[in-house]
Amino acid sequence: MDKLIITAALTGAETTREDNPNLPLTPDEIAGAAVEACRAGASIIHLHVRDREGKPTQCGEVFGEVMEKIKARCSAILQVSTGGAVGMSAAERSTPLQLSPEMATLTTGTVNFGDEVFSNPRPLVEELAGIMQKRGVKPEVEVFDAGMIDSALRLVKKGLLQEPLHFDFVMGVPGGIAADIRNLVFLAESLPADSTWTVAGIGRHELPLGTAGILMGGHVRVGFEDNIYYEKGVPAESNAQLVERIVRVAEIHQRAVASPDEARQILGLAGR
Ligand code: KMH
Ligand code: ZN
């Protein structure tokens, strides 16, 4: 089994300070949280950024500032969001790709997202995939529902994605696939054999699905984008605290945790 890649999704686009007062929002806070998460065992930092009012933005300057601040202090793989926030335009969503990050997310289908719709029509998905291909950015295919795997495989046939693919199963968004182990097994078994995958369980599903991911040979995402609690009714103190806990789970199950460079080897990023 490969070493475990832990992704820290630090901020997201939906979580607020009212949800958890420890949410990192400014470039310094996000960079600080990334460095702490990396020290705790995360090898990928999934990045969203906020404007001065704390609202989600895809502004290239803000992403650039955060990325430079992280790179100065740790070697984590930086993965920018092209999902942004519900309702953002194609131009906004693609902006951080201009920074040629090592990785970026690519959601391959539309899904209900609570009371809203996270819209990913095929032309938009193909445009984002094409930019990633041109810039040598490794996509992480975000799977909010099972059909998004099939859509990703169609992009492979069109030459817009290259195998081996890396997937993130985001499970438990109201409107997407339910966060249970039967579904996780189904999703993992639906992938081409040479794929890698990670699981992001939303809310209280983060820990049990992360544990299942560790046992199944997958990888795990934790962080305030997906879950704000350490336990029922107790807000997490930091993203690093959630990373530390999943590291402990991995240790209990004797699954070694990957360093950023080991994660680069596993994901085929080394030497790209
Ligand atoms: N904020 C969600 C609507 C991604 O990062 O690519 C989309 C999202 C996925 O967070
Ligand atoms: Zn995200």
Quick synopsis:
The chain has helices at 27-40, 60-71, 90-94, 122-135, 147-157, 181-189, 206-216, 239-252, 260-267, and strands at residues 6-9, 44-47, 49-50, 56-57, 77-80, 103-107, 111-113, 116-118, 138-143, 166-171, 196-201, 219-222, 229-231, 234-235. The chain is an alpha/beta fold and 272 residues long. The strands form four sheets. The chain has an eight-stranded parallel beta barrel with strand order 1-2-5-6-9-10-11-12, surrounded by seven helices. Strands 3-4 form a two-stranded antiparallel sheet.
List unreliable stretches of 5+ residues: none
Query: What's the tally of helices?
Result: 9
- Output the CATH class name: Alpha Beta
CATH architecture: Alpha-Beta Barrel
What's the order of the H and E elements?
EHEEEHEHEEEHEHEHEHEEEHH
CATH superfamily: Aldolase class I
Radius of gyration: 17 Å
Please give the order of strands in the largest beta sheet.
Answer: 1-2-5-6-9-10-11-12
Q: Rough shape?
A: globular
Termini gap: 23 Å
How much strand content do the residues show?
15-25%
The CATH topology turns out to be: TIM Barrel
Count all strands and give the number: 14
What share of the residues lie within helices? 25-40%
- Mean pLDDT across every amino acid position: 98
Instruction: Write out the distinct hetero groups bound to the structure.
Output: (5S)-5-amino-3-OXO-hexanoic acid, zinc ion
Characterization of this structure:
This protein is α/β, with parallel strands linked by helices. Helix content is 36%, strand content 20%. The chain contains 9 helices and 14 strands. Helix 1 packs parallel to helix 8 (239-252). The mean pLDDT is 98. The chain binds (5S)-5-amino-3-OXO-hexanoic acid and zinc ion. (5S)-5-amino-3-OXO-hexanoic acid binds at residues 12-14, 81-83, 85-86, 105, 107, 113, 118, 142.
